[in-house]
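Work Package 4 report. The design task specified in the project plan requires that, given a folded chain encoded as structure tokens, an amino acid be chosen for each position. We show below one input record used in the internal validation round.
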């Protein structure tokens, strides 16, 4: 038996409720969209994109993606297509893509990752995941790999002063001796590397493009081998080139973290209200040949835990 609603107020209230429910269902069923801009086609970017896509697949969400790579597509065309598509969020990978998003696509909410210096390229309409692995994690890993490593070397510039201060505090707390030198001019780098590597047993690289470029990296790796200093790199690229170990982000997990931030933007949150996060999952790569030349015996369990091992059978 059907119940009739005679009260006009009840009729109005129910009508409003039905309208709100219809709006909610319409929004919930609407397909979200994301544009993905990578600075290049490097494997780490591809891994992060896989992680980003898998986040939504794991949650059974229908998201449409459009992908762009700046190493084979013109920036003007990329910006034009994104302006026409009007995606709900832009997922940007690398500093080159971040600069483009900041300068030309700043009106669309964006999530970034794999940007070395976010403060230089990020605006109020962006949030994301830094590549800043907590220093304490790196130092604990160094001690696990070889407890004899007690004297840490470091170069920094005015731009990386905050990181130097964080490392200095952590070394003091963990009983490690720190030898550090500030770099003012790039021409001072070779002598600074020679000076530092002569009195330490390990050298920690930090993200600072004013200090680390192809020639300075090559010089550091050679001096490290010459002085039997274990160089701690920033990614597997450095390990393959001759660093003892590199403590790095898990790129696929970075993409997954960015997917979580994008989901919150889909839900209506502004990027300005979402804090920039640090990586959650960390990995490391080892160069076994370099370890042998340095006289370091890496425990078998740490070899098994390594994401990549270089220098085997060479």
């Amino acid at each position: 038996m059907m119940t009739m609603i005679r009260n006009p107020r009840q009729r109005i209230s129910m009508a409003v409720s039905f309208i709100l429910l219809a709006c909610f269902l319409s929004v919930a069923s609407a397909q979200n969209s994301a544009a993905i801009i990578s600075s290049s086609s490097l494997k780490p970017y591809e891994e992060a994109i896989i992680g980003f896509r898998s986040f939504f697949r794991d949650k059974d969400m229908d998201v449409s993606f459009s992908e762009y790579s700046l190493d084979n597509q013109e920036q003007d065309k990329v910006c034009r297509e994104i302006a026409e598509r009007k995606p709900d969020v832009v997922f940007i990978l690398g500093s080159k893509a971040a600069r483009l998003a900041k300068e030309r696509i700043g009106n669309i909410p964006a999530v970034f990752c794999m940007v070395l210096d976010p403060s230089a390229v990020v605006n109020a309409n962006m949030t994301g995941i830094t590549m800043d692995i907590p220093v304490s994690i790196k130092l604990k890993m160094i001690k696990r790999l070889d407890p004899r490593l007690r004297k840490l070397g470091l170069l920094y510039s005015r731009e990386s002063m905050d990181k130097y201060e964080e490392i200095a505090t952590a070394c003091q707390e963990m009983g490690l001796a720190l030898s550090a030198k500030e770099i003012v001019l790039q021409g001072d780098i070779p002598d600074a590397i020679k000076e530092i590597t002569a009195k330490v047993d390990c050298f920690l690289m930090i993200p600072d493009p004013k200090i680390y470029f192809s020639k300075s990296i090559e010089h550091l790796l050679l001096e490290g081998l010459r002085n039997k200093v274990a160089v701690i790199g920033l990614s597997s690229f450095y390990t393959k080139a001759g660093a003892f170990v590199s403590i790095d982000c898990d790129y696929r997990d970075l993409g997954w973290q960015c997917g979580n931030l994008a989901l919150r933007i889909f839900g209506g949150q502004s990027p300005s209200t979402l804090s920039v996060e640090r990586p959650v999952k960390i990995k490391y790569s080892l160069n076994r040949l370099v370890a042998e030349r340095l006289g370091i015996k890496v425990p078998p369990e740490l070899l098994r835990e390594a994401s990549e091992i270089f220098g085997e059978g060479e």
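The longest strand covers residues 32-38. Validation will be extended to a larger panel in the next phase.
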